[in-house]
Hints:
The chain has helices at 40-47, 68-72, 89-100, 104-114, 118-121, 131-143, 161-173, 186-189, 231-239, 260-268, 282-295; strands at residues 2-11, 14-24, 29-33, 54-59, 75-78, 149-153, 178-183, 195-200, 203-209, 219-226, 243-245, 250-256, 274-281. It is α/β, with parallel strands linked by helices and 296 residues long. The protein has two domains: 2-209, Rossmann fold (3-Layer(aba) Sandwich); 219-295, Alpha-Beta Plaits (2-Layer Sandwich), CATH 3.30.70. Helix 4 packs across helix 6 (131-143). The N and C termini lie far apart (55 Å).
Amino acid sequence: MIRLAQLTKSFGRAKALDGLTLTAEAGEKIALVGANGAGKTTLFRCLLGEYACDGVVRIDGQDPRRNRTAVLKHIGFVPQLPPPLKMPVKDLIDFATGVSGADSGRIVSVAADLGLDVGEVANRPFIKLSGGQKQKLLIAIALGRDARFLILDEPAANLDPPARAVLFALLERRRDDTMIVSSHRVDEVAGLGTRIVELDRGRVVFDDPLILSAGARNMLSAWVRIARPDKAFAKAMLEWGFAASEGGLAWRGAVEGPDRLRFLGLLSRYAGLLSGLSFNSEAEEERRHEAVRSCV
């Protein structure tokens, strides 16, 4: 359980958190949203014991500032900005496993699922990795262990579409863990939570159970048709894992529910090319194929 009561943190005269009160029960998933500067990252830093603050912060009844080592052992954390670490990737993984007692093989496996071959970058300094590689490694370190609490600050940032799909699937499997995942975009995290909490100027301004729309957490089958072949459009579709037919005029693939609006935003750049678009959930797609098979 996570409990915050009258949490206040100031930087000079500016209040980043202003009497914030919030509770997350065991196994609860909170989608934390708010504009940049709303206080999301500061809240996370207080949860991790990095900032001294006024008010009450408790994780499993412990103060993360006073009992930081014991608390952090049970937290998987992905920061918004990768730290400027100069140590080689293999040393970073060894350090993470030494602190948490995790199996390095699980971290390597999660990284591989996300599309990062740790063996290829093992001797490379972390700071020299690309933005996407850094994010995949940090996610692998956070999820490749038996942490009971997941604190994820903009975890999908810098990820390519296939890696984003893997991330959403991995988080969906962590049913027993307490999770707070932040974003400044509601659509990105809405499919991951059981509750949505909005921050504004360091205060909770909205806190309600999350009512998911149909298919919000499901993989959606997508079909796109364009009026003429286009190289830039083809490159974008291939990055999303779509396959072409009819000489590049028709494209079919799958989109994670939380990524639907992101995908539609991509398509809006090619509005002049589009001649057809459809979405179906996996269940709807299977029913459609079953109906076709029954008629054959």
